[in-house]
Specification:
Order of helices and strands: EEEEEEEEHEHEEEEEEHEHEHEH
CATH topology of one domain: Ribosomal Protein S5, domain 2
Distance between the termini: 14 Å
Strand order of the largest sheet: 3-4-9-5-6
Helix content: 10-25%
CATH superfamily of one domain: lpxc deacetylase, domain 1
CATH class of one domain: Alpha Beta
CATH architecture of one domain: 2-Layer Sandwich
Strand content: 25-35%
Structural class: alpha+beta
Radius of gyration: 17 Å
Number of strands: 18
Length: about 270
């Protein structure tokens, strides 16, 4: 396949609070030419699966946390190269979704870079852990996520799109991160979600959403958003893949990204 590399033609700036830390942070997206890199102080880390240091509650690269929403927006905008400079080691929560990132990055002027030839994905990539699984195959941008819970509403919900890239802005990007109502106080006491409020997180109660949902199936839409962001660590264009995720979290997402990168590297 021919990968049409693309970067920003000028810097784009976001300001907000770190999603979990609640610390004020400015994120400046600079043009790049050697992949996607995150930088905070003296640390500079490339967005590849091998550099993931933690997957509890978010995806962390080295000491830089919660990169999945930004990576998802970059995947949908098909930006292959960028240098992301941070004033604190966590990406801003914004409104709990990827929409603010996608909107600004879509509107920003772009610059083309030299094309790269990569092999097509020649085999199905599969990752499984317990009842969770991710399947990836050569495709045309189809994405599906199946949420299942044995004890909590909504028990089972699925979202599917035939075009993860073309439909991202309206179908996927607005979906916010979620939390079960019985977990909210525990998360606060553990210092999590400090950059979120009642408008930027979807709270799930015993029989439905506690606050207003943006979509009836907002939960699996956001899970697909996260999955896209984690898989983009492999550097493979979303429009060339077909993805199905079931009950997966960041750990399995990153494992699937690692296996995808390895499959694409084979001669």
């Amino acid at each position: 396949m021919t990968v049409h590399r693309k970067t920003l033609a000028e810097a784009v700036v976001f300001e907000g609070l770190g999603l979990h830390s609640g610390v004020p942070v400015v994120a400046t997206f600079h043009p790049g030419e050697s992949g996607i890199w995150f930088r905070c102080g003296s640390e500079r880390v490339e967005a590849i699966p091998a550099n993931v240091s933690d997957t509890r509650r978010c995806t962390r690269l080295g000491g830089i946390s919660t990169i999945e929403h930004v990576m998802s927006a970059l995947a949908a905008c098909e930006i292959t190269d960028a240098e992301i400079e941070l004033t604190a080691p966590e990406l801003p929560a914004m409104d709990g979704s990827a929409l603010p990132f996608w909107t600004a990055l879509t509107a920003a002027p772009k610059a083309g870079l030299a094309e790269v030839e990569k092999p097509d994905l020649f085999t199905r990539v599969f990752a499984q852990e317990g009842g969770a699984s991710i399947g990836i195959a050569l495709g045309t941008g189809r994405g599906r996520y199946e949420f299942q819970s044995d004890r909590d509403w909504p028990y089972e919900q699925a979202f599917e799109t035939e075009d993860m890239v073309g439909g991202y802005g309206g179908q996927i990007a607005p979906a916010r991160t979620s939390a079960f109502h019985h977990e909210v106080e525990m998360a606060r006491q553990a210092g999590l979600g400090q950059g979120l409020d009642e408008t930027s997180v979807l709270v799930l109660g015993p029989s439905g959403c506690v606050n207003a949902a943006r979509f009836e199936d907002e939960l699996p839409r956001h899970k697909l958003l996260d999955l896209m962001g984690d898989l983009y660590l492999a550097g493979v264009p979303m429009r060339t893949l077909s993805i199905v995720g079931q009950r997966s979290g960041h750990r399995l997402n990153v494992e699937a990204a690692s296996r995808l990168a390895a499959a694409m590297a084979r001669p």
